[in-house]
Amino acid sequence: MNCKDAIKGLYINTDDTSSVEIAEAKAHLRGCMRCKAFFERERGIKNLLSAKAPIIKAPESLRKRVFREIEKPSSPIKFANMFRYSRKATYTATVSVIVIVLLVLALYVDENDEPLQIVNEIAKHHINYLQSPNLIDISSSEAKEVESWFRYKVDFIVKVPELSGTKLIGGRLCSIFQKRAAVLVYKDQSQALSLFVIDQPNLDISTMDTIDIDGKKLCRGSRKGVNLVLWKDRGLVYALVSGMREMELLRLASRSTSNMEL
């Protein structure tokens, strides 16, 4: 077994310790000083990453896809020439590959994280409203009138909470991943606020950054220059969005409703 096949086998099949190929790769490693040096440097880099960053296990399909890209004949650096580089050059190249893989993993995780997808959608809808403030389906400062307007337009009961220091100016409908959501629109002296009400009882938002205020659990985040606070109440997801300071937004959210749960 040559160096290329040995290192490839030990990289891809880390969980398989019984195959003949792995046994041959380990036998090769015991007798090859170049491969030993390579994996010693890899262990050092992994230890550094473990100390400085969280570990994200790559899905098997992604790992295999990365290796298929590495093996393409068009690659300008052939695997057989790897050991011709100086130690410094090899270390730099290895770190670069790891950084690229980590970035790919971050994008992979982000694209498949449902709470983050919803946060991105909510931020986008709020920014669209700021750019065109006339996007209101009902203009009213009367909570009962707004609640009545939403009846039969969404598949849940909309209750308008009072947000201290703000004024209700109306509401609108929007679609979050092909599902109708209600948006309550408020204003304070200088900022517009959108309160999204979404029927997503199975959405787990506890994976987000969570803070406890007076026994109420709130999830917070920011996207595209706006701050968001999310919580769940009786199976509905609420998201308060604004350009105001995060602590002020948290204060409003903590007082806007009761019996909140994650």
Description:
The protein has 262 residues and is of the alpha+beta class. The chain has two domains: 3-111, no CATH class; 114-256, Phosphorylase Kinase, domain 1. It is built from eight helices and eight strands; from the N terminus they run ααααααβαβββββββα. Helix 1 (3-12) packs across helix 2. It is elongated, with a radius of gyration of 26 Å. The N and C termini lie far apart (54 Å). Residues 104-112 and 258-262 have low confidence and may be disordered.
What brief labels describe this structure?
alpha+beta; 2 domains; Phosphorylase Kinase, domain 1; 262 residues; single chain; 21% strand; 8 helices; disordered C terminus
| Coarse shape | elongated
- Report the uncertain regions: 104-112, 258-262
CATH superfamily of the largest domain: MucB/RseB, C-terminal domain
H/E series: HHHHHHEHEEEEEEEH
Q: The CATH topology of the largest domain is what?
A: Phosphorylase Kinase, domain 1
Distance between the termini: 54 Å
Determine the fraction of residues in helical runs and give it as a percent range.
40-55%
Query: What summary fits the major beta sheet?
Result: 8 strands, antiparallel
Strand content: 15-25%
Number of strands: 8
Overall tally of structural domains: 2
Question: For the residues shown, what is the average pLDDT?
Answer: 76
Oligomer: single chain
Question: What's the architecture of the largest domain in CATH terms?
Answer: 2-Layer Sandwich
